[in-house]
Amino acid sequence: MTVTDAHAQPEHYADYLRMLARSQITSRLQAKLDASDIVQQTLLQAHRNQHQYRGQTEAEWVGWLRVILANVLATELRKFHTQARDPAREMSIEASLDHSASRFDNLLAADQTSPSERAGRSEQRLQLARALAQLPNDQREVIERHHLMGWTIAEVAEQMQKSKPAVVGLLFRGLKRLRECLSDQEGSTHATKSSG
């Protein structure tokens, strides 16, 4: 996907942005904040402010979307914390999003450094986000908290009010299902390319 394609279809990144947004919404605020609403606002702002984007690569485009997501999250979180605008807090959200994105990339295969490998990695990132979105909520949540947010099994179990063995089971089944989803996506991608 080229940067021009990305501009034309920012919703292509919705699952990825939703996953990042969920990583920032604490369980205390989950009833009040919906990651899908946050992403919708992010994509709307990206569309409105597209003329301000100055990057050249897809990585820069995704980074720009993450900055917008951080700003939207900061605005929404401020509503619940009734604090004035705090640039330090907004930078903290942006840094936390970058950290989550980095952990997300670590779920992908070995380091890829050539331009074609980086382009492939970008597509893999989007496929992984789409596959995560297809998982049952509990499995997705366990994978996101453990692998993307870096929580221990004990922390995930406590947060989700489940036993450690239950969380391990969800993680195992979720990762198995995630591999199946990715394999299915890869199969459909190859079928589409060979028929085109």
TrEMBL record:
The keyword Transferase does not apply. Pfam families: Sigma70_r4_2. InterPro entries: RNA_pol_sigma-70-like, RNA_pol_sigma-70_dom, RNA_pol_sigma-70_Plancto, RNA_pol_sigma70_r4_t2, RNA_pol_sigma_r2, RNA_pol_sigma_r3/r4-like, WH-like_DNA-bd_sf. CDD domains: Sigma70_r4. Residues 126-178 form the RNA polymerase sigma factor 70 region 4 type domain. Gene3D superfamilies: 1.10.1740.10, Winged helix-like DNA-binding domain superfamily/Winged helix DNA-binding domain. Keywords: Sigma factor, Transcription, Transcription regulation. GO terms for molecular function: DNA binding; sigma factor activity. One of its GO terms (biological process) is DNA-templated transcription initiation. The keyword Transcription applies. SUPFAM superfamilies: Sigma2 domain of RNA polymerase sigma factors, Sigma3 and sigma4 domains of RNA polymerase sigma factors. Belongs to the sigma-70 factor family. ECF subfamily. This is RNA polymerase sigma factor 70 region 4 type 2 domain-containing protein.
